Amino acid sequence: MKNVNTDQAFDLLKDAGVTESISIQTVRRWLREGRIKYEGGNGSRKTGSTMDDTDLAFDLLKDAGISEHVRLQVVRRWLNEGRIKYEGKSKRDSGYIIDDATKNLSINDVPAQNKDEIIHRLRLKIQAQDTHIEGMEALYETAKKTLIQQREMYKKEVVMLRNEKSQLQNEAGDLLTENIELRNELTKRKQNQTGHFNSAPIARSDDYSKKLGLSKKATVKEVLAGYKGLLKITHPDQNGNAKVFHYIKTDYDNFRKGNNGI
Q1: Distance between CA 208 and CA 220 in Å, rounded?
Q2: Of 43, 76, 110, which residue sits at a domain end?
Q3: Number of folded domains in the chain?
Q4: Whole-angstrom Cα distance, residue 132 to residue 97?
Q5: Are 14 and 106 in a shared domain?
Q6: Where are the beta strands (DSSP E) in the chain?
Q7: Nearest to 79 by CA among 112, 124, 123
Q8: Model confidence pLDDT, tens digit, residues 53-110
């Protein structure tokens, strides 16, 4: 385990602006805790010696209550002066990673032998970000393709529904035409059975009411309204059936003639 001696610890606190009395108390506490080692016996302090790594310096300054801004300034100065070695591989027990602590240091403040390592780490980080961006772009393209496919599917469904609607309208028109023809045939047979062979048949209002599904007591106005509604629905301009429209129009004209051309 790398250790800091008492001289280095005292100089570190002094450069951080800690008073001499507090520095002495702090160094004594670190000695008791085994965080630094005592080197004595030669009667003089070992000044100018190099600390093992920046991790230890940051830990000690933080423990002494020094602000992060001051810690960065002191470590930067010691790096420039060669009084401390830059170690960027280890993680300190406090969980404070040296890369995070020195991220605000300029690349020029770091010794030359460690610049390649920092550049390598930055490249790895950029590669990771590029991979993340590529993943997001792929996700976007997948979502885009899915939306386009859904849009095309909805368009096809709309076309199918329109075709079904047109087919149903045609079928309804055919049924209505058949219904009118059957009722006309039935009316003719009834007239023939009553002996009206030489006179033009005059249809009664209740015959037209039956064709339209109205009550026998329906008024002429109500019958006319019923025909107008059918003519509007079956009109070719409204995508109706021309054949059905013709039959209904003929019936409508006959009804009007039978009611004095209303």
Answers
A1: 10
A2: 110
A3: 2
A4: 24
A5: yes
A6: 4-5, 36-37
A7: 112
A8: 788 888 889 999 998 888 888 888 888 888 887 665 444 433 333 344 444 445 555 5
